[in-house]
Design brief:
There is one protein chain. By secondary structure, the chain is mainly alpha-helical. It folds into two domains: 15-93, DNA polymerase, domain 1 (Orthogonal Bundle), CATH 1.10.150; 117-178, no CATH class. The protein is 48% helix and 3% strand. It has seven helices and three strands; from the N terminus they run αααααααβββ.
């Protein structure tokens, strides 16, 4: 039911209803409409439910700084909030809040979670049969899960102890994986 656009009461004077009607009149996607309304609502709530027409550049900067510093949002989330507020001011209200100065959200470094060799050995000791074979292939050859789940007979060469992974991530053909004897 989230994909069905909400009806806008005819003649409504509520700010968010007028904003919703403007977004629809300009042909924005329903998903964009929901996203922009979410961020405008959060902006209004952050400033103690003040009417949006009474707020300007300072309030926008304070809200975007709050998102970056206290809410610890990602840069793309902060950018989405900024786009929603800029739509509201530039296109809907017809006002330009000038050059904004706010702290940009930082990209958080993401380190991969990797099991140590002793941890893998412990896991392998608790497995048997097909699951042990699959985990061994995943760990030993670097196969992706889908490559391990969908091998075909023509991809396995028993005489050379070789497995060819086809149509992996990005539908690239990977080089064959060889096991030394």
């Amino acid at each position: 039911m989230d994909d069905i656009p909400v009806n806008i009461p005819s003649g409504s004077t509520r700010f968010l209803d007028r904003l919703r009607a403007d977004l629809r009149a300009r042909g924005y996607a329903y998903h964009t409409e929901k996203t922009y309304l979410h961020w405008v609502r959060r902006f209004i709530q952050y400033h103690g439910r003040r009417h949006p027409e009474t707020m300007g550049r300072g309030e926008i900067e304070a809200f975007l700084n709050h998102l970056a510093v206290h809410c610890n949002v990602s840069p793309s989330t902060q950018r989405t909030a900024l786009n929603a507020l800029m739509y509201r001011y530039n296109k809907f209200l017809g006002r330009d809040p000038q050059q904004l100065q706010f702290q940009y959200a930082r990209v958080k470094p993401r380190l991969p979670t990797v099991l140590t060799h002793p941890e893998v050995c412990t896991i392998m000791r608790h497995l048997s049969g097909t699951p042990k074979l699959m985990v061994g292939l995943l760990y030993g050859s670097g196969l992706r899960l889908q490559e391990c789940l969908n091998p075909r007979i023509k991809d396995i060469d028993f005489s050379l102890s070789m497995l060819t992974a086809r149509e992996g991530k990005g539908t690239r053909t990977a080089p064959p994986f060889c096991r030394t004897r």
